[in-house]
Amino acid sequence: MAKLYIVATPIGNLEDITFRAIKTLKEVDFIICEDTRVTKFLLNHFGIEKPFIVANAFNETKTIERIIDKINSGENAALVSDAGTPAISDPGTRLVNAAVKNSIEVIGIPGANAAILALSISGLPTDSFVFEGFLPQKKGRQKKLLHLSEEERTIVLYESTYRIEKLILELNQYIPERQIVIARELTKKFEEVWRGKPSDILSSLKDKILKGEFVVIIAPKDFIM
């Protein structure tokens, strides 16, 4: 029986890919990706050429049946996201569920993950944490922030270039005394990390051009550095 491999890829620095990931990508029959341009750049770097099926947030549901049919016909597949581990705040969960329902073996190939990397360098408690990914953009956002203000575990959030300043302003409103760590462009050339209370970080980011992807780590309620 052919298999579905869930392959983690680098979040920035291409040297972070594992030997096992390279071996798997070389051996599968086709690769499922979010954006062929991004994945081709990675594969070209390692001299790998494979056919693609694009499955992203917009068409994932429509492509699942085709992917399952190909695997059932004997073709091994690898699922990758643009960066990091598939299905973690990225497409992939529906495909994995479909594979399981069709008795297809799903094998994970571990590697880079921005949330875990940011946690490891945060200096905040990591024995218990909650991963919230991206907060709702509009409906339910304030309710979620209010709920998180009472959270007794470390909180991990993702945020985009376009909303990071808004998020910090909201954290300054809901949890002004909480310690936070913000990591930008992890493993990349312009990697930066800011630490402090929301007001401290707002001051640090003043006049900076905030580009890239951000991981926000929030200390537990009543935590003291």
From TrEMBL:
GO terms under cellular component: cytoplasm
Record flagged with keyword Transferase: yes
Domain Tetrapyrrole methylase: 3-198
PROSITE patterns linked to this entry: RSMI (PS01296)
Keyword vocabulary terms for this entry: Cytoplasm, Methyltransferase, rRNA processing, S-adenosyl-L-methionine, Transferase
Function: Catalyzes the 2'-O-methylation of the ribose of cytidine 1402 (C1402) in 16S rRNA.
Record's protein name: Ribosomal RNA small subunit methyltransferase I
Source species: Stygiobacter electus
Name of the gene this protein is made from: rsmI
